[in-house]
Amino acid sequence: MRNQSIGLLVLRILVGWVFISEGIQKLYFPGTLGVARFAKIGIPDPGFSAPFVGGVEIVFGVLVLLGIYTVWACIPLLAVICTAIATTKIPYFIHHGAWAALHESRTDISMLLGLIAILLLGPGLLSLDARRRRTTQPIR
Fold first, then answer.
1. Residue 15, CB half-sphere, CA atoms under 13 Å: how many?
2. Range of the domain at 116
3. What is the reported pLDDT for 66?
4. Which DSSP category does 85 fall into?
5. Which of 47, 52, 57 is nearest to 24 (CA)?
6. How far apart are CA 74 and CA 65, in angstroms?
7. Distance CA 39, CA 87 (A)
8. pLDDT means per 10 residues in the chain (140 residues)?
9. How much is the pLDDT for 135?
10. What is the 3-state secondary structure (H, E, C) of 51-81?
């Protein structure tokens, strides 16, 4: 049970950190990773949507990393990563082929699978969700 809890903590750190980092970069580098990139790939209203998505990645990435409201936090991140795959990786696959697309999409696919794993396994015992459950359970 201890190894499983440590493994889930490592998974949450990995997934949370990547989303936090990407969200921050969307805000700090709007010309390459934020508004301009969203405009280039055809996302509607990039002036709103890029900072909004960046904020979603930061807020819900922090929740996943800390393991609080973890399952709920995974849902908007799944929407973000599925949108990223649909708008950037599928067109890349069509234009460049499978091997190039697999290389280009490795982080997105890893984040998708990491989120699915967290949803299936839960946040683990080394999470604020577990601590919250322990303190709210009635004493018998």
1. 33
2. 2-136
3. 97
4. I
5. 57
6. 11
7. 12
8. 91 98 97 95 95 98 98 98 95 95 95 98 94 72
9. 77
10. HHHHHHHHHHHHHHHHCCCHHHHHHHHHHHH
pLDDT computed for residue 129 by the predictor: 95
Torsion of CA 40, 44, 50, 52, to 10 degrees: -170
CA distances from 97 to 41, 42, 61, 83, 110 (A): 18, 21, 31, 20, 19
Beta-strand ranges (E) seen in 12-134 are none
Where are the extended beta strands (E) located within 1-140?
A: none
Distance CA 108, CA 106 (A): 6
* Distance between CA atoms of residues 59 and 57, nearest Å: 6
CB 122 within 8 A of CB 71: yes
Give the three-class secondary structure for 45.
Answer: coil
Question: Do residues 70 and 64 lie in contact, with contact meaning Cβ atoms separated by under 8 Å?
Answer: yes
Domain count for the chain, please give it. Answer: 1
Do residues 65 and 23 lie in contact, with contact meaning Cβ atoms separated by under 8 Å?
A: no
